[in-house]
Amino acid sequence: MKKILLVRHAKSDWENSELQDFDRPLNRRGQKNAPEMAGRLLKAGLIPEILVTSPALRALTTAECFADVLSIERSAIIKEPQIYEASSSTLLNIINSLDNKHHFAALIGHNPGLTNLAVNLCDSDIYNIPTCGMVLIHFPFDQWDMISYWTGDQKLYDYPKNVAE
C-alpha cells in the first residue's frame, strides 16, 4: 500500500512587499503551526519516509520543520521545482514518478493545486486546505505510477485550528 500526506505550507509573511512570492518566509503563526502539526503526526505515529517539497521558502521551511520534529534526515527532503504553482495533474505526475522503495511520502506545496489534488485523488469534500493543513490518503497499490484520480481513501484531514474535543 502507498500513502501520501499532502501538506500545505505554513502561514507565510506578507509584510515585506519587496519580496518575490517565491521568497516569502513563514510568519510567526506559521513558525508556531508547523512544529505543532508535525507533532500531531509524531503522536499518531505517522512519519513519512520522504518529504517532497516546493523549493519556495515557505514550503521548504515547513518541510525542514517537519523533518526536525519527526527526526527525518534532511537528505530525505527532496526539492521539486514543479510543485511551485502546480496544477493537480502536475502534482499527480510528481507522485506517479516517486521511487517505489518508499511507501509513505509527504508532498508539501501550495493551493489551489494541493486542494484540487486531494479532491481528485479521493473524492474528498475538502473545500480548501488551510495553511499547514494535512490530508493523508491511502492507495491499494504497490507502485506510485498506479495512482490516479479517485483511487485513494482519505484517512486524515487536520489543520491548525482543528481542535479535538
From TrEMBL:
Substrate binds at residue 58. Pfam families: His_Phos_1 (PF00300). It comes from the Bacteria. Coiled coil: none annotated. This is Histidine phosphatase family protein. It comes from Arcticibacter tournemirensis. The lineage of its organism: Bacteria, Pseudomonadati, Bacteroidota, Sphingobacteriia, Sphingobacteriales.
